[in-house]
Specification:
The protein is an alpha/beta fold and 667 residues long. The protein folds into four domains: 2-99, Transcription Factor, Ets-1 (DNA polymerase, domain 1), CATH 1.10.150; 108-345, no CATH class; 353-578, Rossmann fold; 599-666, no CATH class.
């Protein structure tokens, strides 16, 4: 118990540093920082913290203090010894972190998709972006720059905003002149204080203020003739939520700004930026100020991991030679950008995953009314609000059990999405076999009401576990759940499907979903009853590689990863005959379907829309429409037969058959 308390104490020593509540460098602490740190020490009264504040003890002097100094300032012997001990402990822990920064960080993760703003993606505290800070690559793949942006706790709001806008303007001008896409990240640590790319995050009170400040600064820092172009290239700040290690909210964000200097926008121009707001210098009556503003005009380019000013004097005999050469080469660089964009657009992916999804989720029947599978088990993790509208297919599925690993699911996740449905909420411990299996299944009402099993807290006040402790704290109970559900007395053998719905990326080898997958695989003796659904290639590749590395199993043939959740939703909904009659579906990529809502169709009041299921005999009687036309009725495009993504009329032989049948009916 003592060791546990000591470990908790040690972790608390670094908590404020890593979360950005205190500057990473102790010597930069202000007197207020020292007071905050002292106040939170165990067994140290607030009076002691106030004494240190009154004595103007800042970070630099804190490092020089000894016990005698504190006693002389009026702090009792006991607290004085504790303060010195905790100070020394903090210094030691920070030194160990710098020596082995990986010890304080999580696993690798991918950056948020470039120039996207509504993706269901979050970062996890202390994970590390698996990308380097870089210069231009292939012009389309973005370069990256990291800014911790956490040593601003006591900084005035105006100075904090200036630091943000200065960094963005410099990075944006460099990307535009280099014609490369780029992303600058705020809330991402770097060496030597943190591991390279370490997710830190910071608290944000007013998100809109960053966007307003950036737009305003663009007008003053770019030359007037290029302001409109800069606003099109520099995207609005994006705030990516940062989760704790147990996937609960940390109330912190990583702020990112994307730069996209497309050829059609930038053409063959090059861009200078002022070191100060040019509008303020123009308003001044002093000619000296105007000249000063012009003197500090800069021309940035991306040079490896930093932005370099080519207009700044250097040690070369001809200081402007590199600048002149670069400007002269802008035309060629612009054409390279154009070719890179065209090459990117030429990539077309052919996919049949819509058909594959229909095959796997129904067991080959392509109809959920007559599916080979009688029951479904859903395994899922933390959801994002933008995903929920595309998960309505789950409401109609015959879900026997949901294994939910989101500790906030009831509050703002998938369980809340199901709040209007009758579900039985269970803890994993309820599935431990202590008597007759049939009696336990009957008591849990397994085949009558959907069972919602919280596998990482969110029930009975149970705290969630992080990925390092989940296996020992909750793993055994969840394994008992899986073993129970896979028993022949509970669910019919070979007649149920386990669906792993990855709503968040699995990026760590200790993620609970990996152990859950392996347990199901062992209980079912293979993958034939397992279907994995990932929203994109990023999520699929991480999931696939972790399973292959840990268990030596290839899951490529049991995964859907090339369809969006909207396409998955429409495709699965179309597999119920009632939906084919009452709803309308449009063809989409990968032989999938998306649902055409009445609201969307109402916006297209000048169009008649032919839907896939109309041609399949869903909500219109196709044959009667055709006969009406062949008998001389008014022509209608509805008699066309929809095949794939194109429309083709009936063959001559089919028309002759219809005509002959029509003549027979007249006689």
């Amino acid at each position: 118990m003592a060791d546990h308390n000591k470990a908790e104490d040690d972790e608390g020593q670094m908590k404020d540093l890593l979360s950005g509540q205190l500057p990473a460098e102790i010597k930069t602490w202000s007197t207020e920082h020292v007071r905050k740190w002292t106040r939170e020490l165990k067994n140290v009264d607030e009076d002691c913290a106030n004494i240190m504040y009154q004595q103007k003890i800042n970070g630099e002097s804190l490092l020089l203090l000894d016990k005698t100094d504190l006693i002389g300032a009026g702090i009792p012997l006991g607290p004085a010894k504790l303060i010195i001990h905790k100070r020394d402990k903090l210094v030691k822990m920070k030194a160990e972190m710098l020596k082995d920064p990986g010890g304080q960080s999580g696993g690798p993760c991918k950056p948020y998709p470039f120039n996207r703003f509504h993706e269901a993606y979050r970062y996890r505290i202390n994970s590390c972006l698996d990308i380097p800070e870089s210069g231009q690559l292939n012009l389309i793949e973005p370069c990256h720059e990291f800014k911790a942006y956490i040593n601003t706790g006591s900084t005035e709001k105006e100075a904090k905003m200036k630091k943000f806008t200065d960094e963005v303007i410099r990075f944006a001008a460099a990307c535009m002149n280099s014609r490369t896409n780029g992303t600058i990240h705020f809330g991402i640590g770097d060496l030597p204080d943190f591991k390279h790319g370490q997710i830190l995050g910071f608290s944000v009170e007013d998100k809109e203020s960053f966007g307003k400040a950036l737009r305003d600064v663009i007008e003053g820092r770019f030359e007037h003739k290029h302001v409109a172009t800069a606003k099109r290239c520099v995207k609005s700040p994006r705030f990516v939520e940062v989760l704790q290690s147990d996937t609960t909210s940390s109330e912190k964000y990583v702020m990112e700004v994307d730069i996209e200097p497309t050829f059609s926008v930038c053409e063959e121009n090059f861009y200078h930026v002022y070191s100060v707001d040019s509008r303020k210098s123009k308003k001044s009556k002093s000619k000296e100020v105007k000249e000063d503003a012009k003197e500090f005009k800069s021309f940035y380019i991306r040079d490896n991991s930093s932005s370099r000013d080519l207009s700044r004097h250097n040690t070369q005999s001809k200081p402007m030679e590199e600048y002149n050469g670069y400007v002269k080469n802008i035309s060629k660089l612009s054409m390279d950008r154009k070719e890179a964009e065209e090459k990117c657009l030429a990539i077309v992916r052919n996919s049949i995953q819509g058909s594959k999804l229909c095959e796997m989720i129904t067991g080959g029947s392509h109809c959920l009314d007559k599916s080979h599978f009688e029951r479904y088990i859903l395994v899922t993790n933390k959801s994002h609000q933008v995903q929920l509208d595309s998960l309505s297919f789950l409401l109609d599925m015959n879900l026997t059990a949901v294994l939910d690993f989101d500790p906030e699911s009831s509050e703002k996740g998938l369980k809340k999405f199901f709040e209007d449905r009758n579900t039985n909420v269970h803890a994993p411990a309820e599935y431990k076999i202590t008597g007759s299996v049939e009696d336990i299944a009957s008591k849990l009402k397994l085949t009558r009401i959907n069972s919602w099993i919280f596998c990482n807290g969110d029930i009975n006040g149970e705290e969630p576990s992080d990925i390092n402790s989940w296996s020992t704290e909750k793993g055994a109970a969840v394994r008992n759940v899986i073993s129970f559900l896979c028993r022949g007395e509970v669910l019919p053998p070979k007649r149920f499907l386990v669906i792993f719905l990855l709503l968040s990326d699995v990026i760590d080898s200790k993620d609970p979903l990996l152990e859950t997958f392996n347990t199901f695989q062992q209980e079912l003796r293979g993958l034939d009853q397992i279907l994995c659904i990932c929203e994109n290639d990023r999520s699929f590749i991480s999931w696939k590689e972790l399973i292959e590395a840990r268990y030596g199993v290839s899951i490529s043939n049991r995964c859907i990863s090339e369809l969006s959740f909207a396409e998955i939703n429409g495709t699965v909904l179309s597999l119920w005959s009632d939906n084919r009659r009452s709803s309308r579906f449009l063809p989409c990529g990968g032989v999938s379907k998306v649902q055409l809502t009445k609201k969307m169709e109402g916006c297209l009041d000048t169009l008649d829309i032919l839907c896939v299921n109309q041609c399949e005999g869903g909500n219109e009687d196709q044959r009667s429409i055709q006969e009406h036309f062949y008998k001389g009725g008014k022509v209608s495009w509805l008699w066309w037969n929809h095949t794939g993504n194109t429309c083709s009329v009936d063959t001559e032989e089919e028309i002759q058959v219809c005509c002959s049948e029509g003549q027979s009916s007249r006689s």
